[in-house]
Structures are given as structure tokens and as C-alpha cells.
Amino acid sequence: MMAIELIPVSVLTGFLGSGKTTILSHLLRQPEFSHTAVVINEFGEVALDHDLIEKTEDSVIALTTGCLCCRVRSDLTKTLQDLLRRRDEGACTRFNRIVIETSGLADPAPILHALMTDTALASRLVLGSVVTTVDAVAGEVTLEREAISRKQVAVADRIVLSKLDLTGEVEASLHNRLTALNPGAPTSRAVYGRIESDNLFGVALHDARARVLDISSWLAEAPEHNHSAHDAEIKSFAVVRVEPIQAVALTLFLEALAEHCGADLLRLKGIVNVAESPQQPAVIHGVQHVFHAPAWLRHWPSDDRTSRMVLITRRIRREWVEVLLDAISAEVAEVSASNR
Amino acid sequence: MRGLSIDLVYELITQSLAAWHVAGAIELTGDGAIVIGAKPEIRIEPAQAGSVFRWTITIDGRMRPAISLLAVLRQVRGALDPGYAACRVRVALLPVAPS
Fold first, then answer.
1. Closest approach of chain B CAs to the CA of A327, in angstroms?
2. pLDDT, average across residues A304-308
3. Best mutation site among A324, A325, A329, A334 for testing chain B: the one with the most B CBs within 10 Å?
């Protein structure tokens, strides 16, 4: 049977005016992006010279009442399905990558949920990286004022600092703020919208095919970070376990997080030594209450066999997460032992 | 890895109440139960030997079984946190080995 080609879908997000469209315009002129389909979650601010632009008709979604999450998801799902159909019918260029540019006011989480949970899409598409642009000039003020901008940063796999042509250097305070919000995300710099495109939209580790990528950069170790007062609710920390975790315990642990944390679990990503598969670690990835199906790496990326899970949370106590995993693991071990 | 003990469960309940911002004095009794002094009062103890359930929870005098600590947490939070609406999303069981 012929293997189905999975197409990576990356998300470009960032607050209003943070330079998303400018950066995307630049990227789309690069040869390596010639087979990229772009979905704009906002009516275009710049006429992109590209023949594969899809526009979702959602210009009012961010401002209306009702279930924003569901509306975004249904619209996006339909758009992506149409795009795939056109590709299959030869009605557009045979693209090998999709980039979704979100509205500047959008919560990226529902978009990630749509990509992670729609079964029809899952057979064709795989979630790539989440790239968040931050205005190097006004970014600090925006982060202070706008909760959605903090969330956009918190869910990023990579942060792009834009408008460095205006400011030259990044203020240490902005850098510290970004590190506090998302210590695991590497930072790139954009000058006049130009950025090194290598790996900008590299497939993230939650891609089931991505078995050879750089774990350490994706899963940067995150000692608990303290934040300035306005970010006090958002924390990042790493949960590390030396002993392998049983698959059932891991499942129950994730279920407990989903059940009791919901939207306060902004992001979870991790590499886990599953007891039943000691040679092949599982890569887990979740946004709020939705978890992507785990991917299995072909082998451990280093001699380090510890399980490492990085959580970016709002109002979730690290102590609770730690004891929750301990208690669930202990109960599963006890049940397993009694069944032998 | 820590073994499952009533002390560990006590710690889990203590941390859970703090995480949920729910008030209640938690006591580990001499007969190996955990009592949460709140409204309603809750008592958590291991189920009797031979039971298919692992835990027994008594809420306001009414006994309920629980099959796992996850179920215990769900019942405790449901009783103490009026704003809690259990997320119905369930995480699919992790495949125990790569396919």
C-alpha cells in the first residue's frame, strides 16, 4: 500500500501589527517556500504575490459572541478540506506545506485543536511548528496589556522578534519577559521582515514522522520560572522522571491534567520513557485539554533516558502536577503487581 | 518511584485542594482514612479487600466506590467545587508500543 504523504501545517501567530504578514510575504518569495499554501485567518493586509492563498471568511469571528472555538474550528476545517480537494484535483499547485496566518487577536489554541483533533484532516495533515511574532519595539507593552499576546507567546515553538530594523537591539526586559513566558522557544530575529527561513517552520516533534529532529531545542529544559507580577499566573516548569512511566499511568496523568486544568494548561510537551517501550521514547504534545496522539521516536536522541515534560500553565501548581504523577504511577504499579 | 501509601494520597488530596482553590482541613486518621473537614465532609479510605473498587468515598454520610485515584479526585472536586464542570474530553489510551 502506498504511504500517504502527510502535509505539515504550521501556524504563524502574533499580536496585531507584530509583523506576521510582512514576514510571510518575505518567506513566500524564497524558493523553498514555493510550494506553500497559505491560509489567512484575517483579510489580507498585504497583497501576497502567491497563487495559493486561501482566505477564511472569519473577519468577524474574533469580535462576536458565541463559541469562538467551534466557529474557528469549523471554518478552518472546511477551508483545509477544500484546499486538499483542490490539490487532489490538480486545481492548484501541488503544495507540500501549509502555513496558517492567524488574526492578530486570535487565540491560537482552537486552531491547534482543530489540527490535532479532526480525524479527516489527521489522515492528510500533521501539525508543524507554531511561530509567534513579537514586535521588538512595542512588544513589551503589548505583552503587559494584552492577555492574548501572552498566550500567543506561551504556545509558540519559535518566537520571531520583528522590527529590529527600527530598534536595533532587543531590550533585556523584553527578552526576559519572553523567556519567562516560554523558556523553551528559540528566538529568531527579523529585520525588514527578513528572517533566516531554515527551520522556521520545521516540523515539530508532535509530527509522528519527525523522529530525528532536535529534541533538545524543542524540549528546552525549563526550570521553574518566576515572573513579574503581571505574568504571575503563567508559569513554566519541567517534570522529570528517571524511572520509566507505564503507558496507562501516562494516559491517566494526561487525562487528569485535561480534566482538572482545561484551558489553564496552555501547553505541554514532553519526551517520555514508556516502560513498555524502553528503546523508543514517546513524544507527547497538548494544548489545553487536547492532546495529540503520541509520536514514537525511532531511538533516544541521546544517552539521557529520563522522561521530561515541560508545562506552560496558568494558575496550576507544580506541586500538584508532581504528586499527581507520583500517585497515579504508584497506583498503576500496585494494580499491575497485583494482577501478576 | 514512590510506592502508593495513604501518605501519598493525603499529599495528593492536600495539593489538589490547593490547586483547585478549595478550602478544607485535611486530616489523616488513625485508621488509615483521609477526612476533609469541609461542607460536605468527605472521608476517603481504601476499599475493603476483595472489592473490585480501590477506594471508598463517603460524602455527607453517603458511601460511593471509586475505581482509581482519578475517580477519587473527580468525586472530591465535584463535591467541593461548585464551579467545577468535569471536562468530558478523554485522552485515548497511549499505545504501549510503537506501531
1. 6
2. 91
3. A324
**Do A70 and A181 lie in a common domain?**
yes
Report chain A's mean pLDDT, rounded to a whole number: 77
Pick the residue from chain A with its C-alpha nearest to B90. A255
Last residue of one domain, picked from the residues A154, A189, A224? A189
Least confidently predicted of A10-19, A71-80, A263-272, B45-54 = A71-80
CB-CB under 8 Å, B97 with A277: yes
Q: Which residues pair with A97 in a beta bridge?
A: A36
Whether the pLDDT of residue A104 is over 70: the answer is yes
Domain region containing A313: 215-339
Q: Percent of chain A at pLDDT above 90?
A: 18
Is a pLDDT exceeding 80 seen at residue A86?
A: yes
Assembly ipTM: 0.92
Question: CB–CB of A320 and B74 under 8 A?
Answer: no
Angle, helix A108-117 to helix A147-154, in steps of 10 degrees: 40
Query: Could you tell me what percent of chain B has a pLDDT over 90?
Result: 61
Length of chain B: 99
In A186-226, DSSP assigns E strands to 187-189
A66 and A182 together in one domain: yes
Domain count, chain B: 1
Q: Which residues of chain A lie closer than 8 angstroms to B8, CB-CB?
A: 323, 326-327, 330
> Nearest C-alpha of chain A: how many angstroms from B60?
23
Q: Which residue of A has its CA nearest to B8?
A: A327
Q: Which residue's entry shows cell 482538572? A: A260
What is the percentage of chain A residues whose pLDDT exceeds 70? Answer: 77
Inform me whether the pLDDT recorded for A144 exceeds 80.
Answer: yes
Rounded (to 5) percent helix, strand, coil in chain B: 25, 25, 50
Give the CATH number for residue A304: 3.30.1220.10
Q: What would the DSSP string read from start to end of A207-258?
A: STT--SS-HHHHT---------GGGTTEEEEEEEESS-B-HHHHHHHHHHHH
pLDDT at residue B46 in the model = 94
Is residue A321 pLDDT above 90, yes or no?
Answer: yes
Q: Answer yes or no: is pLDDT of A58 > 70.
A: no
Among B2, B54, B70, beta carbon nearest to A326: B2
A chain contacts of residue B97, beta-carbon cutoff 8 Å: 276-277, 280
Which DSSP category does A266 fall into? E
Note whether A260 contacts B73, CB cutoff 8 Å: yes
Which residue of A280, A317, A323 is in closest CB contact with B12?
Answer: A323
**Grid coordinates given for A57:** 471568511
Domain total in chain A = 2
